[in-house]
Amino acid sequence: MRQGYMRLQALAKSRKLTARFNAQRSLVINVQRYCRGFLIRRWAQQRMVAIIKVQAHIRSAIQRMRFRRLRIEVCHRFKLTLYHLDTYFDAFIVP
Q1: How far apart are CA 4 and CA 16, in angstroms?
Q2: Is the pLDDT of residue 83 over 70?
Q3: CA angle at residue 40 from 38 to 42, to 5 degrees?
C-alpha cells in the first residue's frame, strides 16, 4: 500500500513539474520568438535603408547623365538656330 501511495505521489509530482516546465518552456519560446522577430525586423530595416540609398545614388547618376545629354542637345539646337538666323539676316545685308 505504501508503495502505491509513493508511486501515486511521484506521478502527481511528475505531472506538476512537467506542467510547470512546459509553461516555462512556452514563455521562453515566446521571448525568443519576439526577440528574433525584433532582430530580423531591425536587420531588414537596415537593409532597406541601404537599398534606398543605393537606388537614390543610381537615380541621381542617371538624371545627371540625362541632364548632360539634354544640355548638349539644347546647346546644339540653339547654335543651329543662331546659325540659321545669321544666315537669314546675312541675306538681307547689302554689301
Answers
A1: 18
A2: no
A3: 70
